[in-house]
Design a protein that fits this description.
alpha/beta, 5-stranded parallel beta sheet, 6-stranded mixed beta sheet
Length: about 575
C-alpha cells in the first residue's frame, strides 16, 4: 500500500513538473504561428468586406501632445475608415494609454498599436525610461545585456497597450556623415550589427512583442535624409548582397517578425528612375519575400516622407507600395484616398486574389499572436511607476557601464592621484555635469570649470593659464544636442583648447558624444587617457567615473572606425 501511495505521489510530481515546464515553455514565434490555420483569423476575415480588408493595411499617425482637436481627428479616421493600426509619436504615457483605450473602442477589429522605440519608449514619451542609443550598445561585448534590454522594452510597450516596435535599426552605418541613421545604428561592422540586432529583437519577441528590422536593404551608407529627399544607393548587387543585406538576412534566419523597407533609389536592384525601394515589387516581393524567404510583416517606411511622395504624389505612392508587397503601409498622407485607389485596383484584378487574402490574414495573425483576440483595456493605475521600475533603471546603468571604451591609457594614467590638486573641466555645457559632481567626491582637492561651445579666445586663454596651476586635469566633452551628430557644434577655438589640454601631462578626457566626433578633434589622441562614452547621459557619466576610480574595468570596444588612431574594435582593458 505504501509503495502504491509512493507511486501515486511520483506520478503527481511528474505531472506537476510537466505542467509547470509546459506553462513556461517558449511561446511560438509569430513566423512559426503563420504555418498553422487560425480559426480566429479566418472568422474575422470572413466578416470583412473588401474595403475593410484593404483598410487593415493602413497604420495612421497618433500623438498625445497635439491637443484635443488632433486626437479627435484621429478618432474620426478610426471610426470612418476602420484602419488596421496606429503609430504613436510624442506625448506622455498616461495620456497615451488612456487614448489607446479610447481608440480601441472605436474599432471593430482591435487596432495594432506601434511606436518607434529604438531605445525604448523614452524615444517618444516623457516620464519614461530611455535605454542607450544603438551606437552605444554597439560597444557592449555582452549581448545578453542587450537581450535583457529587449525584454524590458517589451514590458513597457505591452504595459502601455502597444504590440509592435518599429525597431531595431539594423542598418550598417558605414558612412560617418549619414544624417539620418548614424547613432541609431549598432556600428559599421556587419557581424556586430547582426548579433546586436538579433539579441535585441529576440528579447522583445520572447516577451510577446512584434518587432521590425529596418531599413531594408540598408540605409547606412547614404548622405541624404529620406525624410527630405530620395537617397541613392549606387552600389553593385554583389556589394548590397554581401554587406547591406547581411544583418537583415541573419535576422530573417532567426525569426524576426517584421522588416521595414527604406525609401531609397537602388538602380542595381531596380533601375526604374526615381523609384523608391518601398514602391518596387522587384525589391519588396522579388528580393525580400522570394529570394530571402521572409514570411513576416513587410512594413513601409513612413509614406508621408519626401523621399517617397516627391515623385509619386496624390496617392500614387500608396498604391505602388501596396502593389509592391508591403503588408503595413504607415502614415499615408490620406488613408481614405489610398483605400479607395487600392480598392479599385483589387476590383480590377491587378493583384492576385490569393496573395491579397494571404496578406490580410497575415496582419490579422499578427493581432492574434500579440493577444488582441482577447483585448483588454490598459489599466492606468501605477502606470508611471511601472514604466520606471528599479530593475529597468539598473539595466540602463549596467549597459552604460559595459559600453565605456578606453581608447588610450593604462591604470596609472586613468586613475590619477586623488591627493594632488585637480581640475575637472566640462566643455560644451552651461551647468555642472554629473561627471564633475560625481568625480569631485573622489578628488577632494579639486575645482570645477565649465567651457561653453563658443567661448571667446580671451576666456579660453585665461582659463588655460588657471589650469596650468593644477597638477592634473579631467576633461569631459559633452554634446547636448538631442541628436548627436558626427561633428561637434564647437567653435574652432574651443577645439584648439581641447588639443592644448590633451597635450598637458596628466590629462584624462572622456567624450560624451558620438564617437565619430573624435576624428574632428585633432590632437585629442595625445591625452594621457581617452575614453569614448558615446552619449551625454548621466548614466554614461557615472560609468566613466567608475572606470576612473577603478570600480569597474572598461570592457567596451569601438563599434565604428573613427580614424587611423582609433579603428573599429579599439578598446583597452585595465
Amino acid at each position: 500500500m505504501a509503495g502504491y501511495r509512493k507511486s501515486i505521489i511520483y506520478t503527481l510530481l511528474f505531472l506537476f513538473n510537466f505542467i509547470a515546464v509546459d506553462a513556461f515553455a517558449q511561446k511560438e514565434t509569430y513566423i512559426e504561428s503563420l504555418k498553422k490555420q487560425n480559426h480566429w483569423v479566418d472568422s474575422v476575415f470572413k466578416k470583412m468586406n473588401r474595403r475593410q480588408k484593404i483598410a487593415q493595411f493602413f497604420f495612421v499617425r497618433a500623438h498625445t501632445n497635439l491637443g484635443q482637436a488632433y486626437e479627435d481627428s484621429v478618432a474620426k479616421v478610426i471610426s470612418d475608415e476602420q484602419v488596421g493600426g496606429l503609430v504613436f509619436f510624442q506625448g506622455g504615457p498616461v495620456r497615451q494609454a488612456d487614448l489607446i483605450n479610447r481608440y480601441q473602442k472605436l474599432s471593430n477589429v482591435p487596432l495594432l498599436i506601434a511606436m518607434d522605440g529604438e531605445w525604448g519608449i523614452g524615444m517618444r514619451l516623457d516620464s519614461t525610461t530611455s535605454f542607450p542609443y544603438q551606437m552605444t550598445l554597439g560597444a557592449v561585448q555582452d549581448n545578453t545585456l542587450i537581450y535583457k534590454m529587449g525584454q524590458q522594452v517589451a514590458y513597457d510597450f505591452k504595459r502601455l497597450g502597444m504590440q509592435m516596435n518599429f525597431g531595431p535599426d539594423m542598418d550598417i552605418n558605414n558612412n560617418p556623415d549619414n544624417p539620418v541613421i548614424n547613432y541609431r545604428s549598432f556600428g559599421d561592422n556587419k557581424y556586430n550589427v547582426a548579433q546586436k540586432g538579433i539579441a535585441y529583437f529576440k528579447g522583445m519577441q520572447d516577451e510577446g512583442l512584434l518587432t521590425t528590422a529596418k531599413h531594408f536593404p540598408g540605409h547606412g551608407d547614404t548622405n541624404v535624409d529620406s525624410h527630405l529627399d530620395l537617397p541613392s544607393l549606387p552600389f553593385t548587387r554583389a556589394r548590397l548582397d554581401s554587406l547591406e543585406e547581411y544583418p537583415f538576412r541573419e535576422a530573417i534566419k532567426e525569426g524576426i517578425s517584421g522588416v521595414m523597407v527604406a525609401h531609397m533609389d537602388i538602380p542595381a536592384l531596380d533601375d526604374t528612375k526615381n523609384l523608391p525601394s518601398t514602391l518596387s515589387r522587384k525589391i519588396v516581393t522579388g528580393i525580400l519575400k522570394d529570394s530571402l524567404g521572409f514570411k513576416g510583416l513587410v512594413v513601409s517606411d513612413a509614406m508621408e516622407m519626401k523621399g517617397v511622395v516627391k515623385y509619386f504624389p496624390n496617392g500614387e505612392a500608396d498604391l505602388r507600395a501596396f502593389m509592391a508587397g508591403n503588408d503595413i503601409i504607415e502614415l499615408s498622407q490620406n488613408s481614405a484616398r489610398a483605400i479607395k485607389i487600392i480598392r479599385k485596383a483589387v476590383r480590377k484584378g491587378q493583384i492576385a486574389q490569393d496573395e491579397f487574402d494571404a496578406r490580410v490574414k497575415k496582419i490579422l495573425a499578427a493581432k492574434y499572436w500579440a493577444g488582441l483576440n482577447n483585448y483588454k483595456p490598459t489599466p492606468l493605475t501605477n502606470l508611471v511607476a511601472d514604466l520606471n521600475r528599479p530593475a529597468e533603471q539598473e539595466l540602463v546603468q549596467q549597459l552604460s557601464d559595459a559600453a565605456v571604451t578606453l581608447l588610450r591609457g593604462n591604470a596609472t594614467s586613468v586613475q590619477l592621484n586623488p591627493i594632488l590638486k585637480t581640475a575637472i573641466v566640462s566643455i560644451g555645457v552651461t551647468q555642472y555635469t554629473e561627471f564633475q559632481k560625481n568625480l569631485s567626491r573622489w578628488y577632494l582637492n579639486c575645482a570645477l570649470f565649465r567651457v561653453g561651445k563658443t567661448a571667446s579666445v580671451n576666456d579660453l586663454n585665461s582659463l588655460y593659464k588657471v589650469l596650468s596651476q593644477y597638477q592634473q586635469v579631467f576633461v569631459s566633452i559633452n554634446d547636448t544636442r538631442p541628436r548627436p551628430q558626427s561633428k561637434l557644434d564647437y567653435s574652432s577655438e574651443v577645439k584648439l583648447f581641447i588639443a592644448q589640454l590633451a597635450a598637458k601631462k596628466n590629462t584624462v578626457i572622456a567624450v560624451f558624444a558620438n564617437p565619430y566626433t573624435i576624428a574632428g578633434l585633432p590632437g585629442i589622441e595625445k591625452a594621457g587617457a581617452l575614453m569614448a562614452c558615446y552619449q551625454n547621459s548621466d548614466d554614461m557619466q557615472r560609468a566613466a567615473v567608475k572606470v576612473i576610480i577603478r570600480r569597474i574595468n572598461p570592457t567596451g570596444k569601438l563599434p565604428v572606425n573613427v580614424n587611423a588612431f582609433f579603428p573599429y574594435g579599439t578598446g583597452v582593458s585595465l
